[in-house]
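Batch manifest, entry 17 of 40.
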Amino acid sequence: MSNFKGNNNSKTLKTAFERANYKLNAFSPSEIQVVDFNFAEKTFYGRVNRQLDPVVVNDSFLRTFHNQDFQIMNFVGDQFKEMYIRYQNALNLSLINNEDPNLSELKVIRGWESPIKGYSDFMSSFMDDFLMKKMIPIEKKIDSFETFLKLFEEHVLTEDIGSKITLSGFMKSRQSSIFNTGLALQLAPVGFANDATKESVILNSPNYKFFMNMAKQFGFSVNLQNPSVLVSDLAHPTTTKFRERYVLLTVTSVFEKQYHRTYNFDFDLLSQYLLGTYNSFVYLKPNLKEVYVCNNKTKSNISKRNNINTIDYVTILLLYIKIRNMEEISPFSDSEIRSIHNTSTRLFDIKPERAMQFIESQFRDRYNTKEGSLTYYKKKFQK
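Output type: structure tokens
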């Protein structure tokens, strides 16, 4: 009989109790390799750098493991390969149960998943919905790209859509996952939602203790929400040994050399989706019919809508800052947004990357002092 019965099928008090029971009792306090990746800044593990800037993997540093279709960060692949070999040796020497379908011979069933693809899929669906459900029904009111932008801003900022629009916002949301980091791999067909399955497949495995010891020894954290998922602990001494093979001497250097800051992509991606959506609208509704009254007679005038290829960066930059403010739960007032926009516009004229870096630094600094953040509590307790 299962000790853990929680799942995501309902939101009842009993379900909440069962999920808490699993979280508190499934693992021993001595199993320090078990990490709750839904807690505080651990939520963003591998998705933000040491300065809390959102990041994505530079996929040129990914490697395929054992001719499988799954990719992982280069040093993590080496790290897991060593663990795999040790596991195979134990299996060959009959030190572990060879009949366990999941924890005898380790097999990766899930690795790196492209956050760019995930973001692209989400935004394509989001913008298609906006086009068909918001723009087409009021097509007569959209007479220019400027009126389109006003409608988009109103939709995104005032309708409580609950979505993240920029790549930076996407990476700091539940729309992304630990598998976007290049640091995580899954070894058994266990979902995150059903605690009973986690118990039967992993916790009750005859090889469970050996598996946990190997994970700890080789520098992997075990995901509390799914113990079949291993996540490279970047600060672990064993991980450090594998990092150093690639001249990644510090955790900071991992993010500096093998990840991209997402703010460097945000402006161009947002601009592309705005242009693409508006031009799709023009394709579907090429004619704009204006009805007016002249000499007590109703008349109409039909004009052509035109595709656009370039946009005013000053306008888009302001929209971008407003969207990032929404994504970060509105830490800035309207006057502060105008101030950030004025400075970033001047920087954009010099070098667009400097403008984007400045904007993200404003949100990062505000996040570091926001009540509830890890930095906030560290400073509070140091007083």
